[in-house]
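In this supplementary section we document a worked example of the pipeline. Step one takes a protein sequence of length 141 as its only input; no multiple sequence alignment statistics are reported here. Step two produces a three-dimensional model, which step three serialises into structure tokens for compact storage. The input and output of this example are shown verbatim.
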Amino acid sequence: MDPLVSVDLGSATPPYEQIRSQISALIATGALAPGDRLPTVRSLAADLGLAGGTIARAYKELEAAGQIQSRRRAGTVVAPAAPGGGAQAPAAGVPAEVIGAVDLLISAGREARLSDELLLDLVRGQLRRTGTERRLPDGKP
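The serialised model returned by step three reads:
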């Protein structure tokens, strides 16, 4: 999983939030399936050149959202899908057309040389403009 997570230290978004967001996206798209092990806090911190507390905070927020579980001897794993395809359900709950549209958006953004942060800001802005942005229970968009 490590190569799929990166941190832009020049970004206004805090590193823990970048990590939380990327892991959440990997779970949502099915790149990380229920039961998949995540790197240890120490291992991921070393790989990304960050403090362990930064990784621990990202993991803590993911665990609070029900997306991952920390088990004493088994380490940290992706949580099982919520029964009935709840908010934490992986890609099985996301229509293929939506994933395809997101892939097209990402490709167009890459071709236009937009940063990931700008691309996300554009999506959030459009959601707000159309009045369809939904907030998660923790208050985050």
